[in-house]
Amino acid sequence: MFSVVHKGNFDKTLRMLKGAPSKTLQSKLHNWGQMGVQALRISTPKDSGITADSWGYKIVNSKESIAIIWFNSEDAGSVPLAVLLQYGHGTRNGGYVQGRDYINPALRPIFDSIAEDAWAEITKK
Asked: Are 57 and 36 in contact (CB under 8 A)?
């Protein structure tokens, strides 16, 4: 778990997001979404490859925020298989399969790209 502490406000960021041309912003969001899907496909541990091929994304707009949500549609019962691979899981015979952190390293370059692009927009004169 982590926490973020900040001073000030996000006025410049919000102004940038509100002022950005809608088509340009949507295009960038879709580009980052697709980049994330590709990165997740490559880094997902593969047995059959079904889980790796089950990644997708959606863009969610609300009044004050925009989010890219990556998801995996391959389930193991009621739990997404990608979550079991990420965090580990118990087996039927009482054993345990250790998880492997593959999601965070795969998405880190996309997060960095989003942050760099947002910073460039905010500091642009």
From this structure: yes
